[in-house]
Amino acid sequence: MPKTYKIVLTGRVQGVGFRPHVFNLATTFQLDGTVSNNEEGVIIDLTGDKDLVHSFYRILVTQPPKASKIKEHQLTETTYKAFDGFSIVPSKTAGKLNLQLTPDFAICDECKSEIVDKHNRRYHYPFTTCVNCGPRWAITNTFPFERDHTNLATYDMCDSCAKEYGNPSDRRFHSQTNSCSDCGITLQLSTANGEVVATDHPIKKTSDLIKQGKIVAIKNTSGYLLCCDANNTEVIKKLRERKKRPTKPFAILYPSLELLKQQVEINTDQENCLTSPESPIVILQRTGFRGALALVELAPHLNQLGVMLPYSGILYLLANELQIPIVATSGNIHASPIISDAADAHKELAKVADYFLDHDLKISNPQDDSVVKYSDRYQEKIIFRRSRGLSPNFDADVKTGQKILAMGGHLKGTVAFLPNDYLYISQYLGNLDHFDVFDRYMQTTQKFINLFEEQPEVVLVDKHPDYNSTRYGMELAKKFDVKLYQIQHHKAHFASVLGEHKLYDKKSPILGVVWDGTGYGDDAQIWGGEFFTYQDAVMERIGHFEYYDWLAGDKMAKEPRMSFFSLANDAMQNEIKQKFTKEEISIYNQLKQKASLKTSSVGRLFDAVASLLGLCDYNTYEGEAAIILENQIIDYRLENCQVYASEMVNGIVPTQELFNNLYVDFKNGTQKEQVIANFLFTLANIILKMAVQSNVKVIAVSGGVFQNTVLVDMLKELAGTEYKLYFNRNLSPNDENISFGQLMYYQNVKL
């Protein structure tokens, strides 16, 4: 006797081809019923033999569509109902949104093949997608994931596309983003002054322009990219000058994995990352580079390159025409967010780009490319920027029930929202000092609130009173008349690692090491070199780097020479005189004498070392000095390294002694590379010394300093099997993780 069953699946199950997958599987099992999306996931009603239904269910949850991630699934028997075959029915919503959102996916191999096949009807159509690939979050306005809820709603499918959409055996069966050149998105090439370039092949013409040394602003599927020939020294210099980006490295788009492997050494982890559905920028060592790239202009002072492969149809077709690497950097002006609107692009980038390749698909959620790096020796994956392909979902053990909005930090703003059974963390938004970034930060926050139709019951902010995220959080808490909690910056960093690795229930104590550039401390000083312990819901600060003078406010973060000045003793005055005028020395000495604001920042210590060694006195982008410093090391041997700091007393690292010893070693003729290796070796040793003093075997580290992959490798090598190390893995160790850390701290640590 057949029975009727209901199957409910939650998680990332919309926009991934789940319903057509269910349809074909049910047809294979000859089961009758329906499948639909709703505000919580996928709902399946089935009528059939009990054993057949259970077999169907087992295969469905163990072999789901490749882009899906099932969180929970449930099968229950319901009242018998007869169905006429099996069908996909329109989505019905009876409540508020309670499911994971769908990130953007890189173009799949099948779609790539079609758009370069002269005999395929999608030949040269750059917006070709299927159920397995294409933009999702970038073009979505609300959920459930249906065409009407995306910006493709204004494009009516032609008969051919509609036929594919309705064909269960087709890869585009119920593909919500389905379109072709007859019914879909159109391209237009124009000059910087808006004059349309008449051409039947705009991508071919764009390729020719790039080869001729032109800069082209290309509207990609998640925002504009500024592109030019990566082999052309002069055009790269021109792009730097126009974009006011003197030294920050540019991302490079390689036309193919094959060419990349011919020119750069990559390992399996890096290759898998580059070719994954997320397709981020991956930072690679350029040692032994075998190509014609303008290396000095692409990444000044660095021995690494940020590379990516074509992840959208428009980039794949362009790369196929070019067959050379090109610069593909975010389409924005200095310090502003990535641009996605054509009118804005033509207004803001008219003096940067020579030409514009636009399309008429609206982008609702602009995103930069995500950035990933692997450490050389241990292949530890470190996310430098979490954006396209990775946001806005985040899998974590969260306590649901209370609706929580976490406002994050300031330099690398993100927002975390817990409105239902899932946690959502926005893409990287940028430095909230800048009006355009802060405006997008506020828009993103409001979009989350509107999308889920939920107001927060608790708002979490950083303790820094002058952060724009703190001020805005206070405004929202007042507006919604809800509780507001301030959570110390570095404690949030520590809490983020504990949350990522589900360590809150561990019985033994955990050492937290949080090193970064700046954060407002509980004692109103500038923290940045902190040690904590966590046990039984209690987090305590147990040590820090010895305080030194914080000079001239934000100027200290922008000018590494200021950190050197702060730490310089009498023996270093000759070097100081080479970096400062007499008037500056007089002014800053007076500031030093009167300085009441102190810092424990390891990030600024990196700056001081970089300045001392003559590597960088002025940062033109955040973290420049530290990045250049790390890049001096090609290789190292731990047995050749020495320690610059003696034992800690009462948990205080002797910062001044460390810096003095490093200076003496350098003045005695030790090579810069070895001095830097010694410095990083000293830092890694300090962590393990603190672990010994604290009698702790489990160590969790966070903060922007731990984007230094050499330090990470040294720490892992020194720790061996004696210590268990935890790093931020699915979030960046920098301030992008603050919003998540605030949430984790609030839910798990005694306030």
Q: What's the short version?
A:
33% of the residues lie in helices and 20% in strands.
Q: Within the CATH hierarchy, at the fold level, what is the topology of the largest domain?
A: Nucleotidyltransferase, domain 5
Low-confidence stretches: none
Number of spatially distinct domains: 4
Pairing-aware structural class of the strands and helices? alpha/beta
- The spatial strand order of the largest sheet comes to 6-13-7-8-12-9-11-10-14-15
Largest sheet: 10 strands, mixed
CATH class of the largest domain: Alpha Beta
How does the overall form come out from the CA principal axes? Answer: globular
Kindly report the average pLDDT value.
Answer: 96
Mind telling me which CATH architecture of the largest domain this is?
A: 2-Layer Sandwich
The tally of strands reads 29
> What share of the residues lie within helices?
25-40%
Radius of gyration: 27 Å
End-to-end separation: 58 Å
Specify the number of helices: 24
Q: For the record, what is the CATH homologous superfamily label of the largest domain? A: ATPase, nucleotide binding domain
